[in-house]
Amino acid sequence: MPATPMTSLDSQRQARRAQRIAYLRSHKASGARFALAIAAGALLVPGAAAAASAAPTMTVLTDASSHYSFTTLGDSVDPTFNQLLGVNDFGVIAGYFGSGSPAATHPNKGFTVNPYSGTTFSNENFVGSQQTQVTAINDWGNTVGFYGLPSGANYGFLDEGGVESSVSDPLTSSNPPVNQLLGLNNNGQAAGFYNDSKNNSHAYIWNRVTRAFTPINPPGATSSTATAINDHGTVAGFYAEANGNVVSFLKQGSAWKTISAPGSTTTEIFGLNDEGAAVGMYVGQHKQTYGFIYSGGTLKTISDPDGIGSTVVNGLNNNGQIVGFYTDAKGNTDGFVAYNHLVGIPFLK
Questions:
Q1: What is d(CA 263, CA 177) in angstroms, rounded to the nearest whole number?
Q2: What is the pLDDT of residues 251-270, one digit of tens each?
Q3: Which end of the chain is more exposed for a tag (fewer CB within 10 A), N or C?
Q4: Per-residue confidence at 22, pLDDT binned at 50, 70, 90?
Q5: Pairing state of beta strands 120-123 and 60-63?
Q6: Residue 251: Cβ within 10 Å count
Q7: CATH architecture for segment(s) 11-340
Q8: How far is CA 72 from the centre of its chain?
Q9: Where are the domains of the chain?
Q10: 298-302 and 60-63 as β-strands: parallel, antiparallel, unpaired?
Q11: What is the mean pLDDT of residues 172-199?
Protein backbone atom coordinates (compact mmCIF):
# COMPACT_ATOMS: atom_id res chain seq x y z
CA MET A 1 0.00 0.00 0.00
CA PRO A 2 1.38 3.47 -0.78
CA ALA A 3 2.51 5.60 2.13
CA THR A 4 0.42 8.63 2.95
CA PRO A 5 2.08 12.07 3.00
CA MET A 6 4.04 13.08 6.08
CA THR A 7 4.53 16.56 7.48
CA SER A 8 7.74 18.18 8.70
CA LEU A 9 8.49 18.42 12.41
CA ASP A 10 6.60 21.28 14.00
CA SER A 11 7.67 23.70 16.73
CA GLN A 12 6.24 21.51 19.46
CA ARG A 13 8.49 18.61 18.45
CA GLN A 14 11.47 20.98 18.34
CA ALA A 15 10.68 22.06 21.90
CA ARG A 16 10.39 18.42 22.99
CA ARG A 17 13.78 17.69 21.44
CA ALA A 18 15.35 20.55 23.39
CA GLN A 19 13.69 19.23 26.55
CA ARG A 20 15.05 15.74 25.88
CA ILE A 21 18.59 17.01 25.33
CA ALA A 22 18.51 19.02 28.55
CA TYR A 23 17.05 16.05 30.40
CA LEU A 24 19.68 13.59 29.22
CA ARG A 25 22.54 15.99 29.84
CA SER A 26 21.46 16.64 33.41
CA HIS A 27 21.16 12.93 34.23
CA LYS A 28 24.37 12.06 32.45
CA ALA A 29 26.16 14.66 34.56
CA SER A 30 24.71 13.20 37.76
CA GLY A 31 25.70 9.68 36.79
CA ALA A 32 22.11 8.46 36.68
CA ARG A 33 22.05 7.61 32.99
CA PHE A 34 21.98 3.93 32.17
CA ALA A 35 25.50 3.03 31.06
CA LEU A 36 26.48 -0.55 30.35
CA ALA A 37 30.13 -1.02 29.45
CA ILE A 38 30.96 -2.39 26.03
CA ALA A 39 33.93 -4.74 26.04
CA ALA A 40 37.09 -3.53 24.36
CA GLY A 41 37.07 -4.42 20.68
CA ALA A 42 33.38 -5.35 20.70
CA LEU A 43 31.17 -4.73 17.70
CA LEU A 44 29.48 -1.62 19.03
CA VAL A 45 32.66 0.38 19.36
CA PRO A 46 32.86 2.81 16.40
CA GLY A 47 35.46 1.75 13.88
CA ALA A 48 35.26 -1.95 14.74
CA ALA A 49 36.57 -4.36 12.11
CA ALA A 50 34.02 -5.27 9.45
CA ALA A 51 34.23 -9.02 9.89
CA ALA A 52 31.15 -11.23 9.98
CA SER A 53 30.79 -13.66 12.88
CA ALA A 54 29.15 -16.88 11.73
CA ALA A 55 29.34 -18.73 15.06
CA PRO A 56 27.23 -17.53 18.01
CA THR A 57 29.12 -15.34 20.44
CA MET A 58 29.87 -17.10 23.73
CA THR A 59 27.91 -15.52 26.54
CA VAL A 60 27.80 -15.85 30.31
CA LEU A 61 24.31 -16.60 31.56
CA THR A 62 23.56 -15.06 34.96
CA ASP A 63 20.35 -13.84 36.62
CA ALA A 64 19.89 -10.09 37.05
CA SER A 65 16.22 -10.15 38.09
CA SER A 66 16.98 -9.04 41.64
CA HIS A 67 18.44 -5.78 40.29
CA TYR A 68 15.04 -4.74 38.95
CA SER A 69 11.85 -3.51 40.55
CA PHE A 70 8.77 -4.70 38.63
CA THR A 71 5.32 -3.12 38.25
CA THR A 72 2.48 -4.80 36.39
CA LEU A 73 0.83 -2.37 33.99
CA GLY A 74 -1.98 -2.81 31.49
CA ASP A 75 -5.08 -1.21 30.03
CA SER A 76 -8.08 -2.14 32.16
CA VAL A 77 -10.23 -2.42 29.01
CA ASP A 78 -8.89 -5.97 28.75
CA PRO A 79 -7.24 -7.22 31.96
CA THR A 80 -6.66 -10.65 30.39
CA PHE A 81 -4.17 -9.58 27.71
CA ASN A 82 -1.65 -6.70 27.62
CA GLN A 83 1.80 -6.48 26.07
CA LEU A 84 4.20 -3.55 26.58
CA LEU A 85 6.57 -3.36 23.62
CA GLY A 86 8.57 -0.11 23.69
CA VAL A 87 9.60 2.73 25.99
CA ASN A 88 11.26 6.07 25.24
CA ASP A 89 13.63 8.16 27.38
CA PHE A 90 10.69 10.05 28.88
CA GLY A 91 9.24 6.75 30.08
CA VAL A 92 6.28 6.79 27.68
CA ILE A 93 5.35 3.22 26.80
CA ALA A 94 3.89 1.69 23.63
CA GLY A 95 1.89 -1.52 23.48
CA TYR A 96 -1.50 -3.07 22.91
CA PHE A 97 -4.28 -5.06 24.54
CA GLY A 98 -6.36 -7.93 23.16
CA SER A 99 -5.01 -11.32 22.12
CA GLY A 100 -6.19 -11.06 18.52
CA SER A 101 -7.76 -14.50 18.71
CA PRO A 102 -10.28 -14.37 17.26
CA ALA A 103 -9.55 -11.08 15.56
CA ALA A 104 -13.19 -10.23 14.98
CA THR A 105 -14.13 -10.28 18.68
CA HIS A 106 -10.84 -9.93 20.57
CA PRO A 107 -8.67 -7.74 18.33
CA ASN A 108 -5.27 -6.20 19.11
CA LYS A 109 -5.79 -2.55 20.02
CA GLY A 110 -2.79 -0.25 20.30
CA PHE A 111 -2.04 2.32 22.97
CA THR A 112 0.57 4.52 24.59
CA VAL A 113 0.64 5.18 28.32
CA ASN A 114 2.21 7.80 30.54
CA PRO A 115 3.93 5.82 33.32
CA TYR A 116 3.85 8.64 35.87
CA SER A 117 0.17 7.91 36.41
CA GLY A 118 0.06 4.39 35.01
CA THR A 119 -3.60 4.91 34.20
CA THR A 120 -3.66 7.42 31.33
CA PHE A 121 -3.87 5.17 28.28
CA SER A 122 -4.17 6.82 24.86
CA ASN A 123 -5.69 4.66 22.16
CA GLU A 124 -3.74 4.42 18.92
CA ASN A 125 -5.20 2.40 16.08
CA PHE A 126 -4.45 2.80 12.39
CA VAL A 127 -7.48 4.23 10.61
CA GLY A 128 -9.61 1.54 8.96
CA SER A 129 -7.71 -1.33 10.57
CA GLN A 130 -9.16 -4.36 12.30
CA GLN A 131 -6.13 -4.75 14.56
CA THR A 132 -3.16 -2.56 15.57
CA GLN A 133 -0.01 -3.15 17.59
CA VAL A 134 2.13 -0.16 18.60
CA THR A 135 5.62 -1.65 18.83
CA ALA A 136 8.01 1.27 19.43
CA ILE A 137 8.05 4.94 20.44
CA ASN A 138 10.89 7.44 20.09
CA ASP A 139 11.68 10.57 22.09
CA TRP A 140 9.68 12.76 19.72
CA GLY A 141 6.62 10.75 20.68
CA ASN A 142 6.42 9.24 17.19
CA THR A 143 5.43 5.58 17.01
CA VAL A 144 5.65 2.63 14.65
CA GLY A 145 3.92 -0.71 14.54
CA PHE A 146 1.70 -2.68 12.24
CA TYR A 147 -1.97 -3.06 11.51
CA GLY A 148 -4.09 -5.90 10.24
CA LEU A 149 -7.07 -6.07 7.90
CA PRO A 150 -9.84 -8.70 7.88
CA SER A 151 -8.14 -10.26 4.83
CA GLY A 152 -5.17 -11.19 7.02
CA ALA A 153 -2.88 -8.60 5.44
CA ASN A 154 -0.37 -6.84 7.74
CA TYR A 155 1.17 -3.45 6.96
CA GLY A 156 3.66 -1.37 8.89
CA PHE A 157 2.86 2.17 9.93
CA LEU A 158 4.47 5.35 11.22
CA ASP A 159 2.46 7.80 13.33
CA GLU A 160 3.89 11.32 13.70
CA GLY A 161 1.62 13.33 15.96
CA GLY A 162 -1.50 11.78 14.45
CA VAL A 163 -0.25 11.87 10.84
CA GLU A 164 -0.30 8.21 9.82
CA SER A 165 1.75 6.60 7.05
CA SER A 166 1.29 3.05 5.83
CA VAL A 167 4.62 1.34 5.10
CA SER A 168 5.12 -1.70 2.87
CA ASP A 169 8.31 -2.94 1.22
CA PRO A 170 7.68 -3.27 -2.56
CA LEU A 171 9.43 -6.66 -2.52
CA THR A 172 6.62 -8.16 -0.44
CA SER A 173 5.17 -11.16 -2.26
CA SER A 174 3.39 -13.20 0.40
CA ASN A 175 -0.34 -13.83 0.15
CA PRO A 176 -1.74 -12.16 2.17
CA PRO A 177 0.99 -9.49 2.29
CA VAL A 178 2.93 -9.20 5.56
CA ASN A 179 4.95 -6.15 6.60
CA GLN A 180 5.72 -5.08 10.15
CA LEU A 181 7.69 -2.20 11.68
CA LEU A 182 9.12 -3.12 15.08
CA GLY A 183 11.71 -0.48 16.03
CA LEU A 184 12.24 3.28 15.64
CA ASN A 185 15.06 5.69 16.45
CA ASN A 186 15.13 9.46 16.83
CA ASN A 187 16.44 9.92 13.27
CA GLY A 188 13.33 8.57 11.57
CA GLN A 189 14.75 5.12 10.79
CA ALA A 190 12.51 2.13 11.44
CA ALA A 191 13.37 -1.57 11.65
CA GLY A 192 11.09 -4.28 10.33
CA PHE A 193 10.56 -7.10 7.86
CA TYR A 194 8.43 -8.34 4.98
CA ASN A 195 7.46 -11.86 3.87
CA ASP A 196 8.16 -13.37 0.47
CA SER A 197 6.02 -15.80 -1.54
CA LYS A 198 7.29 -18.71 0.58
CA ASN A 199 6.49 -16.77 3.78
CA ASN A 200 10.15 -16.38 4.63
CA SER A 201 10.81 -13.08 6.37
CA HIS A 202 13.39 -10.52 5.23
CA ALA A 203 14.74 -7.82 7.53
CA TYR A 204 15.03 -4.19 6.46
CA ILE A 205 15.51 -0.61 7.63
CA TRP A 206 13.10 2.02 6.35
CA ASN A 207 13.96 5.72 6.22
CA ARG A 208 11.03 8.12 6.67
CA VAL A 209 12.84 10.93 4.82
CA THR A 210 14.04 9.06 1.74
CA ARG A 211 11.38 6.33 2.01
CA ALA A 212 14.09 3.87 1.03
CA PHE A 213 14.10 0.25 2.20
CA THR A 214 17.59 -1.09 3.01
CA PRO A 215 17.89 -4.90 3.23
CA ILE A 216 19.49 -6.41 6.33
CA ASN A 217 20.90 -9.83 5.47
CA PRO A 218 22.61 -11.69 8.34
CA PRO A 219 25.19 -14.20 7.06
CA GLY A 220 23.77 -17.73 7.01
CA ALA A 221 20.15 -16.66 7.54
CA THR A 222 17.24 -18.50 5.93
CA SER A 223 14.85 -15.81 7.22
CA SER A 224 15.46 -12.66 9.25
CA THR A 225 13.68 -9.97 11.24
CA ALA A 226 15.02 -6.53 12.21
CA THR A 227 13.49 -5.44 15.50
CA ALA A 228 15.43 -2.36 16.63
CA ILE A 229 17.75 0.44 15.51
CA ASN A 230 19.42 2.94 17.83
CA ASP A 231 20.48 6.52 17.20
CA HIS A 232 23.98 5.37 16.17
CA GLY A 233 22.54 3.23 13.39
CA THR A 234 23.23 -0.11 15.07
CA VAL A 235 20.59 -2.66 14.04
CA ALA A 236 19.36 -5.60 16.11
CA GLY A 237 17.11 -8.53 15.39
CA PHE A 238 17.10 -12.28 14.94
CA TYR A 239 17.26 -14.88 12.18
CA ALA A 240 16.74 -18.57 11.49
CA GLU A 241 19.73 -20.76 10.64
CA ALA A 242 19.70 -23.70 8.25
CA ASN A 243 19.49 -26.11 11.21
CA GLY A 244 16.30 -24.42 12.42
CA ASN A 245 17.84 -22.63 15.38
CA VAL A 246 16.98 -18.97 15.90
CA VAL A 247 19.80 -16.64 16.97
CA SER A 248 20.06 -12.89 17.43
CA PHE A 249 22.29 -10.37 15.71
CA LEU A 250 23.76 -6.92 16.19
CA LYS A 251 24.96 -5.05 13.12
CA GLN A 252 27.00 -1.86 12.96
CA GLY A 253 28.10 -0.83 9.51
CA SER A 254 29.32 -4.03 7.85
CA ALA A 255 30.26 -5.72 11.14
CA TRP A 256 28.03 -8.45 12.59
CA LYS A 257 27.78 -10.09 15.98
CA THR A 258 25.68 -13.21 16.61
CA ILE A 259 24.19 -13.83 20.05
CA SER A 260 22.72 -17.04 21.44
CA ALA A 261 21.83 -17.94 25.02
CA PRO A 262 23.83 -20.98 26.20
CA GLY A 263 21.87 -24.19 25.71
CA SER A 264 19.01 -22.48 23.88
CA THR A 265 17.84 -23.05 20.32
CA THR A 266 15.87 -19.77 20.24
CA THR A 267 17.27 -16.37 21.21
CA GLU A 268 15.52 -13.22 19.99
CA ILE A 269 16.50 -9.57 20.54
CA PHE A 270 13.58 -7.13 20.54
CA GLY A 271 15.04 -3.86 21.86
CA LEU A 272 18.29 -1.88 21.72
CA ASN A 273 19.39 1.35 23.39
CA ASP A 274 22.05 3.93 22.53
CA GLU A 275 24.55 2.37 24.94
CA GLY A 276 24.46 -0.85 22.91
CA ALA A 277 22.51 -2.83 25.50
CA ALA A 278 19.92 -5.20 24.02
CA VAL A 279 16.91 -7.00 25.48
CA GLY A 280 14.83 -9.92 24.34
CA MET A 281 13.94 -13.47 25.25
CA TYR A 282 15.33 -16.98 24.99
CA VAL A 283 13.71 -20.40 25.25
CA GLY A 284 15.18 -22.47 28.08
CA GLN A 285 14.55 -25.92 29.46
CA HIS A 286 11.01 -27.32 29.23
CA LYS A 287 10.27 -24.71 26.52
CA GLN A 288 9.98 -21.92 29.10
CA THR A 289 10.75 -18.35 28.04
CA TYR A 290 13.03 -15.97 29.91
CA GLY A 291 13.78 -12.34 29.30
CA PHE A 292 17.34 -11.12 29.06
CA ILE A 293 19.58 -8.10 28.83
CA TYR A 294 22.81 -8.37 26.84
CA SER A 295 25.86 -6.13 26.89
CA GLY A 296 29.57 -6.53 26.31
CA GLY A 297 29.45 -10.28 25.76
CA THR A 298 27.35 -11.01 28.85
CA LEU A 299 23.75 -12.18 28.72
CA LYS A 300 21.74 -11.86 31.94
CA THR A 301 18.36 -13.40 32.58
CA ILE A 302 15.49 -11.14 33.65
CA SER A 303 12.20 -12.64 34.88
CA ASP A 304 9.20 -10.89 36.36
CA PRO A 305 8.69 -12.56 39.77
CA ASP A 306 5.08 -13.31 38.81
CA GLY A 307 6.06 -14.81 35.47
CA ILE A 308 9.20 -16.91 35.93
CA GLY A 309 9.46 -19.14 32.87
CA SER A 310 7.06 -16.96 30.88
CA THR A 311 8.76 -13.54 30.69
CA VAL A 312 9.58 -11.60 27.52
CA VAL A 313 11.50 -8.29 27.63
CA ASN A 314 10.58 -6.21 24.61
CA GLY A 315 11.97 -2.70 25.06
CA LEU A 316 14.43 -0.58 27.00
CA ASN A 317 15.54 3.03 27.14
CA ASN A 318 18.72 4.85 28.12
CA ASN A 319 17.62 5.34 31.74
CA GLY A 320 17.45 1.80 33.06
CA GLN A 321 13.79 1.09 32.28
CA ILE A 322 12.64 -2.09 30.57
CA VAL A 323 9.17 -3.18 29.45
CA GLY A 324 7.65 -6.46 28.41
CA PHE A 325 5.06 -9.01 29.43
CA TYR A 326 4.57 -12.34 31.20
CA THR A 327 1.90 -15.01 31.76
CA ASP A 328 0.44 -15.04 35.26
CA ALA A 329 -0.96 -17.91 37.35
CA LYS A 330 -4.43 -17.39 35.84
CA GLY A 331 -3.10 -17.68 32.30
CA ASN A 332 -3.49 -13.95 31.59
CA THR A 333 -0.85 -12.04 29.67
CA ASP A 334 0.26 -9.03 31.76
CA GLY A 335 2.43 -6.10 30.77
CA PHE A 336 5.22 -4.97 33.08
CA VAL A 337 7.59 -2.05 33.45
CA ALA A 338 10.74 -2.39 35.54
CA TYR A 339 13.73 -0.25 36.39
CA ASN A 340 17.23 -1.19 37.42
CA HIS A 341 17.40 0.19 40.94
CA LEU A 342 21.20 0.01 40.87
CA VAL A 343 21.68 2.36 37.91
CA GLY A 344 18.24 3.35 36.69
CA ILE A 345 15.80 6.16 37.35
CA PRO A 346 12.75 5.00 39.36
CA PHE A 347 9.89 6.30 37.21
CA LEU A 348 7.60 3.76 38.80
CA LYS A 349 7.81 2.52 42.38
A1: 35
A2: 999 999 999 999 999 999 99
A3: C
A4: low
A5: unpaired
A6: 22
A7: 6 Propeller (2.120)
A8: 18
A9: 11-340
A10: parallel
A11: 98
